[in-house]
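1st attempt posting a full record on here, be nice pls
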Amino acid sequence: VKVLSSNTDIEPVLTTIKDGEEYRLTLHAKTDSKIGRIGGEVQIFTDHPNEKVLTLPLYGMVSEGRQAKQ
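the predicted structure (as tokens):
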């Protein structure tokens, strides 16, 4: 199983819950992402014979976060 995002500002993280059966997909906006609307697609490549590739639309908003004090 592998995951790709069409938007380079979004980092997909796939965590195995139960190998070959259950996974958790988390999407993170990169820290240098532009503030505003964000969109694209996330593709999930599987080993399932009937669902080789799942394509999910991606819509969201990147807002200004708190910066760590140095």
